[in-house]
């Protein structure tokens, strides 16, 4: 579900969500990059939010609202939230710098230990790697995204997957075997660019 907004055109929001769902189904689930993702997707427990935020303060406000909403919601109906930021943080370094503020919001709300925040970005880059290193794609999504998760759900998933600590290494191997051609063949991209509102960030991921 996408939260309604009077600021971004409906067609743009729908295109952003479609791009993200294709990424989720073909990359995250299709390549089994996260063995916990399929269950919440099939059960429709993912809450999708396409944010109209164009600066860090607006993102902070949206993040605070969505953290509160997730904490207050029934886990059986909303287990996790994907806060997608198509209008902000085109630069990965700016996005990466904001993550400290995101953690500060979590602490400000007293939700540390109950919720946590993961992140994805179309230009994600691990420290010490080249920008085109295929292993960076384990954390790449079509748009900058903050993933809000419940600690209890993570704990249950880890119990059901006793070798959870090996996921990181396995994902690296999967991407290295897949290669850039294999990743490109997944057909992931930014189709929302065709209906991009004025004033938004440009360029392809």
Produce a short descriptive summary:
This protein is of the alpha+beta class and 205 residues long. The chain is built from 6 helices and 4 strands, in the order ααβαβαββαα.
Structure description:
This protein is α+β, with helices and mostly antiparallel strands. The chain has one domain (10-195). 43% of the residues lie in helices and 11% in strands. The protein has six helices and four strands; from the N terminus they run H-H-E-H-E-H-E-E-H-H. It has helices at 10-29, 37-42, 56-72, 92-108, 151-160, 167-184, and strands spanning 46-50, 80-84, 115-120, 145-150. Strands 1-2-4-3 form a four-stranded mixed β-sheet, sandwiched between helices. The longest helix has 20 residues, at 10-29. The chain is globular. The model is unreliable at 1-6 (pLDDT under 50).
Summed up, the helix count is: 6
- Helix content class: 40-55%
Strand element count: 4
Number of domains: 1
Flag low-confidence runs.
1-6
- Average pLDDT score: 91
Quote the distance from N terminus to C terminus. 24 Å
> Which oligomerization state do the chains in this entry correspond to?
single chain
Structural class, please? alpha+beta
């Amino acid at each position: 579900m996408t939260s309604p907004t009077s600021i971004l055109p409906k067609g743009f929001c729908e295109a952003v969500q479609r791009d993200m769902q294709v990424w989720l189904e073909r990359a995250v689930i299709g390549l089994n990059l996260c063995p916990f993702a399929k269950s919440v997707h099939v059960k429709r427990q993912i809450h999708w939010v396409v944010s109209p935020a164009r600066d860090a303060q607006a993102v902070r406000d949206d993040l605070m609202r969505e953290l509160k909403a997730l904490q207050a919601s029934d886990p059986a109906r909303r287990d996790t939230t994907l806060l997608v930021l198509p209008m902000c943080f085109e630069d990965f370094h700016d996005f990466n710098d904001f993550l400290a503020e995101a953690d500060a919001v979590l602490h400000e709300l007293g939700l540390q230990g109950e919720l946590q925040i993961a992140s994805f970005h179309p230009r994600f880059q691990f420290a010490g790697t080249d920008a085109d290193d295929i292993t960076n794609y384990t954390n790449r999504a079509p748009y900058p995204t903050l993933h809000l998760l419940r600690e209890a759900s993570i704990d249950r998933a880890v119990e059901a997957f006793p070798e959870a600590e090996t996921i990181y290494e396995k994902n690296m191997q999967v991407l290295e075997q897949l290669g850039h051609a294999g990743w490109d063949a997944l057909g992931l991209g930014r189709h929302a660019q065709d209906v991009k509102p004025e004033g938004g960030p440009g360029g392809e991921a």
